[in-house]
Design goal:
Blueprint: H1 2-15, E1 28-31, H2 38-49, E2 54-55, H3 58-61, H4 72-77, E3 87-90, E4 105-110, H5 113-128, H6 132-136, H7 139-145, H8 149-155, H9 170-182, E5 185-188, H10 192-203, H11 228-231, H12 236-248
Parallel strand pairs: 1-3, 1-4, 2-3, 4-5
Helix pairs in contact: 8-9, 9-12
Length: 253
Amino acid sequence: MATLRHWVARSIDLLQGQGPRVRRPQRIFFIHIAKTAGTSMRRMLEREFGAQRVYPGSPHLRLLPGARYPHGSEMLRSFDRLPPHNVLTGHVTAAMADMLPVPYRTATFLREPVQRSLSMLGHFSRGMKVPAATLLADREFVALNIADFQTRMLGADGVCDPHEVGPADGPMLERATQRLGSLDFVGLTERFGESCALFDARFGTAVSGSMRHDQVLRPDGDELAEFIPRIAPCLEHDRVLYERALAAFVPVA
């Protein structure tokens, strides 16, 4: 299904007299996996297309409860009422691409699993004012926000909201790996500059020109390194997925 949707989107580009490197793609669906520099990428896309042409972009988020992304299921229900946009984004699974009523070209970032998990842990610990050790002792928190999170985001089937995805297993890992090949773009946070150049080559944009390195990899996890032995066993599938993404990553020559 995903391959067919991408073929249709590419065919529309060609019929409009545009090649595969279009300066202004009509529709990009950016799957924002938490703590992979997705906020930095969203802001760069706002500078590229205009903040109002990214949904939800900064102007929309200011009006939403808690300045948080809407649930994917909510965006699907209200799709016909969404503002005109070039980029649709959110903390949603890759499976949502197949549920959208019109085709989008698809993009996401992955991050080294331990570092992503430490960043996630630090984010919640600061925001909730709860010690990191307390959060790690909460099985539900770990299951929803840490354990094989990236595999669940890419490998979910028929579910668009991350917290509705069950535990990762072998079949889910294989679906996630298949999506690595079917998405139009998969960047790597640790190779953000190269990824942005690849994004520009793939989509005909110029996001690389507005990249700010200091906003991408913050030193979140340094003070939390003591928790790595407790986190690492929860990331078995994520490690495999990341290694596969790293092997498949081919920067612009």
